[in-house]
Amino acid sequence: MKKESFIYLYVLIACCLLACATIGVPNTYGLFYQPLSTILNTGKANATLHVSIAGLVTGFSSPLIVKSLKKISYRPVFIGGILLLLISGFLIAKADSLLIVNFAGILRGLGFACSTNVIITMLTGNWFKSSRGAISGLIMSFSGIMGSLFSPVVSKLLENLGFQKAYLICIFIMVGLSIPAMFVPLKPENIGMKAYENNKKQKEKESYAGRFELKFLSPAFILLMITSLLVICVTTLTSYLPSYVESLSLSAANAASLLSASMVGNVLFKFLIGLSIDRYGVLPSFIVFMAICFIGLFVIIFAPHNMTILFLAGILYGACYAVNKVAIPLTVRILFGDKSYGEAYSMLSLTENIARSAVITAIGFMFDLTGTYRYNFLIALLACILSSLMIIYLDKKKA
Is 352 helix (H, G, I), strand (E, B) or coil? Predict the structure, then answer.
């Protein structure tokens, strides 16, 4: 294997492991809520406040991190982020007060801003020009695989070792999986290489030049931001899937089955949308996979009483993850180009983090008000349609 080929393979593996570390492992974080609540002798709302704080800090600091990478080296920023995750992990594991946990949430948020989704997509885009869809889908699929496989492991660790040791083990695993990415330069040009391209001529080379100039108050960016927020309205329902099923007086087995199915869809469709994007383009794939999600949601709402059908519907619903984690970042590249991608996507990430926190609260509030989750799911159906219409409009606007 040529040296260049080995380096491309190393970068790909490092990005997959980083997705496992900073997206996959945190997907199991909900398992720590109850033990932490018990240790702090407080309610779940207080025990989970640091998660919202971390999300907001990640969102607000991501644009600043991206700007700083134009002036300072990427590696110290990344290593600093991993160290912040390690420090916050120790503080939370050893904490005996809510104040310390919330402070650790700030450090955790800064750590993720330096190491997670925005950084992963920047590395992917900088290092791979060909097959970006398939490569992005593969990398993000690993986050879903890790989340699915690691959940029972965390449960066992909590059961056998208790909160503190289980939490620290998870932090060490996150840091360990992140280490290979520490040796990846932000751009291949930094080590005298070029981004990977295969020998076939591909239309996507021109498509990533950008269609619009990046202006945060421009109609194009605002429409894309609204589109992203609509997709967030759909994906945020995941944490309420078990509660929704149980509210219909169905069994806990059905509730668990639906959540597991959505995780299967998470992994499957992230990979499939990558292949679809390389073959048909980002925007058509966006529409098709949102349509798949729409069908799954429709069945979950109107035909939830057959366990087999419910499981299949949950898999189809999982297509929304593929749109959120693969299609949206690549749509940013299509519309604003590789050069402006970091700034554009980091700002989009800010609005997504704020929206996700707001939507989680709004779903709970609407349930308290109406006694049902059905209205939230109907709103999500509408969000599937509106997000697709906005993408079509953005595509037509360029023409």
Answer: helix
DSSP string, 66-108: HHHTTTS-HHHHHHHHHHHHHHHHHHHHH--SHHHHHHHHHHH
User: In which residue are the tokens 């390389």 written?
Assistant: 278
Q: Rg of the Cα trace of the chain? A: 21
pTM: 0.81
DSSP assignment of 214-277 equals: --TTSHHHHHHHHHHHHHHHHHGGGGGHHHHHHHTT--HHHHHHHHHHHHHHHHHHHHHHHHHH
CA–CA separation, 46 and 32 (whole Å): 13
- Among 381, 152, 145, 150, CA closest to 268: 145
Phi-psi group of 217: left, alpha or beta (phi > 0 → left; psi -120 to 50 → alpha; rest → beta): alpha
Is 249 exposed, middle or buried, given 0-12, 13-18 or 19+ CB atoms closer than 10 A?
Answer: exposed
Q: CB of 321 within 8 A of CB of 265?
A: yes
Give per-residue pLDDT as tens, 79-133.
999 999 999 999 999 888 889 999 999 999 999 988 888 889 889 888 988 778 8
